[in-house]
Design a protein that fits this description.
single chain, 337 residues, alpha/beta, Rossmann fold, Dihydrodipicolinate Reductase, domain 2, seven-stranded mixed beta sheet, 8 helices, globular, binds adenosine-2'-5'-diphosphate
Length: 337
């Protein structure tokens, strides 16, 4: 019988942590012991895994004894506090927060793109930002064929990326507005229902947001090419699950829309939905609950000689976070076995 592993989910009660548990179950990850960790607030709660209730434990530095793989999604400060203790205890940490992503010695991994960066010795592997993950899955085959020199991307990001409280806020605001009441605004600076906010994470000195600059730096790191120029505008939209992106790329050598379509049909983790005559294109409602990255509206950029435009959609909680982390963990145990 093949080996079973001791797995911890740190941040198990959160939106991504919950999805991690579901992904481990769906993908039949070979688990011996499962530890579900959260803050002291969650002690007393139970969460189900394969029909069995598991008690949520308070995360401490001692939580990781005997743990082989720790999947973290409890925010950057929690990762900074506890991930080193998990590594010290001998675990491979897959960290969904932004805490370690840009550390030069920490691998930043999307398994379809740079699986060779995965290590199986105790240490941290960073899971990229949701918007970056889906974009690089779609762009890697194009980069390999024609070398991407520039990316201009606009995102349309679902509220679930902010966490469960933002999902509730959108629901609440829609209800309030339909009832003729003043909507309650707590999570975002403005009403998100029936609105779009060109503001994700904090504004930086260069007037881009941190989310936008994550897309710049993480894309270069994952594609292992610091010469790619990237400019992003990231926008929060009133969608529950599924980020969409209009991606404009310029390439060193000419590639046609048809070639891109053919390449992406063969690409791992990608589903091409691109038949405009039949009104077939990806949408968040199509991608929600799925693990693939959906790509459509593939066309040549009429404003430049060597440019391609794509519409890329994926479930931000699944491929954008939990699924990607579990896929990394699957590669880790493959290497360890
Ligand atoms: P808790 O539910 O006990 O607060 P989300 O991103 O959906 O808000 O979820 C964040 C996750 O991170 C939750 O599981 C939350 O646990 C956990 N978390 C937040 N802060 C801490 C902390 N200081 N120690 C342990 N877990 C934490």
């Amino acid at each position: 019988m093949s080996r079973l592993w001791n797995v911890a989910v740190a941040g198990a009660t959160g939106a991504v942590g919950n999805q991690m548990i579901q992904c481990l179950e769906e993908r039949n990850f070979p688990i011996k012991n499962l530890k579900l960790l959260a803050s002291a607030r969650s002690v007393g709660k139970t969460l189900n895994f394969k029909g069995t209730p598991y008690a949520v434990e308070e995360m401490t530095e001692q939580s990781f004894a005997g743990v082989d793989i720790a999947l973290f999604s409890a925010g950057a400060s929690t990762s900074l506090k506890f991930a080193p203790a998990a590594v010290q205890a001998g675990a491979v940490v897959v960290d969904n927060s932004s805490a370690y992503r840009m550390e030069p010695h920490i691998p930043l991994v999307v398994p379809e793109v740079n699986p060779h960066q995965i290590v199986s010795t105790p240490g941290i592997i960073a899971n990229p930002n949701c918007s970056t993950i889906q974009m690089v899955v779609a762009l890697k085959p194009i980069h390999d064929r024609a070398r991407i020199t520039r990316i201009v991307v606009s995102t349309y990001q679902a509220v679930s990326g902010t966490g469960q409280k933002a999902v509730m806020e959108l629901q609440g605001q829609i209800k309030d507005l339909l009832a003729g009441k003043e909507p309650e605004i707590k999570v975002y600076p403005y009403q998100i229902a029936y609105n779009c906010l060109p503001h994700i994470d904090v504004f930086l000195d260069n007037d881009y947001t941190k989310e936008e600059m994550k897309m710049v730096h993480e894309t270069r790191k994952i594609l292992e090419d610091d010469s790619i120029r990237v400019a992003a505008t990231t926008v929060r939209v009133p969608v529950y699950y599924g980020h969409s992106e209009a991606v404009h790329v310029e390439t060193e050598s000419k590639i046609t829309a048809r070639e891109v379509r053919d390449l992406l049909r063969e690409a791992p983790g990608v589903v091409v939905v691109d038949d405009v005559a039949a009104k077939q294109y990806p949408m968040p409602l199509m991608a929600a609950g799925k693990d693939e990255v959906f790509v459509g509206r593939i066309r040549e950029d009429i404003s430049t000689d060597k440019g391609i435009v794509l519409w890329v959609v994926a479930d931000n909680i699944r491929k954008g976070a939990a699924t990607n982390a579990v896929q990394i963990a699957e590669k880790v145990i493959e290497l360890k076995s």
